[in-house]
Amino acid sequence: MEKIPVVQQHTPAFVKDGKFHVRLVEGRFQNLRRLTTWPLIALFFGLVWVQVDGMPWLLFSFEQRRILLFGTSLSWHDLPLLAGLMIAGACLLFFMAVAWGRVWCGFACPQSIWTWLFIRIEDMTEGRANQRAKQDKKGLTGALFLRRSAKHLLWCLLSLATAITFTGYFIPVRDIMDGVLTLQLSPAIGGWLLIMAGLTYANAGLVREKICLHACPYSRFQGVMFDSDTRTVSYDTNRGEPRAHKRAQDGSSGDCVDCGLCVQVCPTGIDIRNGLQAACIDCGACIDACDEVMHKLNKPRGLIRFASEMELTHKASRFLRPRLLGYGTAIVCTTVAVLYGFTSTTSLLVEIRRDRNALFIQLDEDTFCNTYGVKVESFADNEQLINVSIAGDRPYELFGPAQLDMQETGSTWLPYRVCASGIDSPRSELTFNFNGREVAASKQTTFLARPSKPVPRD
């Protein structure tokens, strides 16, 4: 059998001036896509409003220097845990790509999800794809102007809602909404919202498939991850060719009637019958369109289907293979490591630095003092008061706040002085102890002095 060619057809044949209208279709894969995307959309827009004990359930707060993650408060020193989650997610993405192609792009990628939302709005305001194509040929009329104005207004509102929600994961969304409703947003936040809304409007409304073709790196290196057993959206040439208008010499023809619906419903405008292409996002829209045609013609479905190269050549296809097992092992190992890391997160962060202007202060012949800067950050919501004490091999005396109120001190540096008498060593160990109701931390530092007696040398 002749191998299916890999082509780079970025614009379908029926397109003029680089613009085409995506035809919406119904079917099992589109229903599956909705079952996947609508919960994700609901989580994105709803999770930012959820609060537990008056605190957001998910917030990456730069102001508080903490991460609120589903009831757990993390410090910025726990960011490697989030990096581990991202690594596990990347391995899962690669695992899915090796097994089923670009199903992430077709069923869960934010670019695809928002593009479908914008297409739905366009279909609702301007009519179906064939109506929009006819309107483009007739030119702009008064009624069309009103419908397009409504479309762009809805696009702008959805873009603004997306920008506000996304920003709400870094700044409390209630504060943002108060600023929006009272027109008292800071220039920085207001500018950021406009930029985010503009990017959403451009990516999902104007650029669309060009992001998948030119900006997304995943479409470029997907070919490295595919193998002959990867099940991706494929056209069965053995069954479909020759097409109905290209009958063979004996008068026979394949099941493909060359209706072109598979091209019209494709969000990236490719013809899957030309073989595997970088622009294909495996959304399954062409499968649903083709299955509907096959059903009307009383022919078996599956002319276009998820199939591997081995299946198309009627050979046995393997699911478990070394590359897939490797990605699966990486997912398990990374997930276990991250879960273990969550058991030892930082609840109390302490930093101590010595005064660089003077090594020590000598009060009299036998008494020396050292000055320290201390910063304490509590990442436990129920810990407001922290007691400070010192311990060491000398009778040290601490001068400074013995109890810290975390709501007042925050992450500020506080001055402390430690004094001691009868020092016989130029350098000794000193430990600062910090204790709350359920958290505790210790930090070791040094105490410098000039001993009253010379230190013997070995």
UniProtKB/TrEMBL annotation:
The keyword Transport applies. It comes from Marinobacterium marinum. InterPro entries: 4Fe4S_Fe-S-bd, 4Fe4S_Fe_S_CS, Cyt_c_oxidase_cbb3_FixG, Electron_Trans/Redox, FixG_C, Ig-like_fold. NCBIfam families: ccoG_rdxA_fixG. This is Cytochrome c oxidase accessory protein CcoG. Keywords: 4Fe-4S, Electron transport, Iron, Iron-sulfur, Membrane, Metal-binding, Transmembrane, Transmembrane helix, Transport. The keyword Translocase does not apply. One of its GO terms (cellular component) is plasma membrane. Residues 245-275 form the 4Fe-4S ferredoxin-type domain. The chain crosses the membrane at residues 38-59, 79-100, 153-171, 183-202, 324-343. SUPFAM superfamilies: 4Fe-4S ferredoxins. Gene3D superfamilies: 3.30.70.20, Immunoglobulins (2.60.40.10). One of its GO terms (molecular function) is metal ion binding.
